[in-house]
Amino acid sequence: MSTPVLEVSDLRMQIEQKTILNGLTVTVKGGEIHAIMGPNGTGKTSLAQTLMGHPRYTVTGGTVRLDGQDVLALRPDERARLGLFLAMQYPSEISGVTTANFLRAAINAKRGEGNNIGLKAFRDELDRVMAFLDMDPTSANRYLNEGFSGGEKKRNEILQMLMLHPRVAILDEIDSGLDIDAIKVVAKGVNSLKGPDFGALIITHYQRILDYVHPDFVHIMVDGRIVKSGTAELALELDKKGYEWVRTELAHQS
């Protein structure tokens, strides 16, 4: 299978006629970890939701392609089967559906009709991944995220990612509200997938998760577009100087 390539070009998006994304461009390839950082209200979560096809967001321009295929023409479930994955900032609770049943259904949907994963193979893999993430194995039998703490929900998102093996993962503030031990577990999961068959786009406010998931590229997003890109050192500089430094630079350039 070829190395995945997610190409976002001049993406523009509105919510109720208010422009949120304003010509955003970024390319994520297999083997690469990209981090997008930016202040509140700049459109980071909206970018993640738009890439996965949330109906609230209206794309008004630009293109999104995964391995050359037009992502914007696909439903959210089709985008997921193509290999796009979103770990949400605020994972939903789904009563009546256990984590195990949800994951098996998602895996079978991705594999396609007539190619379902066997129950034993599924349980063996689920047990292995949960042990790797230091998760309580009994949580697989609980309803999806219902009654879970914030940290448990975020680990559950990483569990889903490791079980589904996406080609490109979008991690929306996966470190939000986590203590250092939980961040290390999340980072362990992301790092375990890094390779030519997997790329990731990490959306975050803070440098701290980037101490454990080392990005190849860091992008700063302001007012719905990427205004500055660099290596991991850019995140360290931003951590010292703050977002006002970026706004001041932009003002001097205009």
Question: What does this entry show, briefly?
Answer:
The chain is an alpha/beta fold and 254 residues long.
Topology:
Blueprint (H helix, E strand, L loop, with lengths): L4 E11 L2 E12 L3 E5 L6 H9 L5 E9 L2 E2 L5 H7 L1 E4 L6 E5 H13 L7 H14 L10 E2 L5 H15 L3 E5 L7 H14 L5 E6 L12 E6 L2 E6 L1 H10 L1 H11 L1
Parallel strand pairs: 3-10, 3-11, 6-9, 9-10
Antiparallel strand pairs: 1-2, 1-4, 4-5, 7-8, 11-12
Helix pairs in contact: 3-5, 5-6
How would you characterize the overall build of this protein?
- The chain is of the alpha/beta class and 254 residues long.
- The protein has a domain at 5-91 and 167-253: P-loop containing nucleotide triphosphate hydrolases (Rossmann fold, 3-Layer(aba) Sandwich), CATH 3.40.50.
- Helices cover 37% and strands 29% of the residues.
- It is built from 8 helices and 12 strands.
- It has helices spanning 44-52, 76-82, 99-111, 119-132, 150-164, 180-193, 232-241, 243-253, and strands at residues 5-15, 18-29, 33-37, 58-66, 69-70, 84-87, 94-98, 143-144, 168-172, 199-204, 217-222, 225-230.
- The chain has a 6-stranded mixed sheet with strand order 6-9-10-3-11-12, sandwiched between helices.
- It is globular.
- The mean pLDDT is 93.
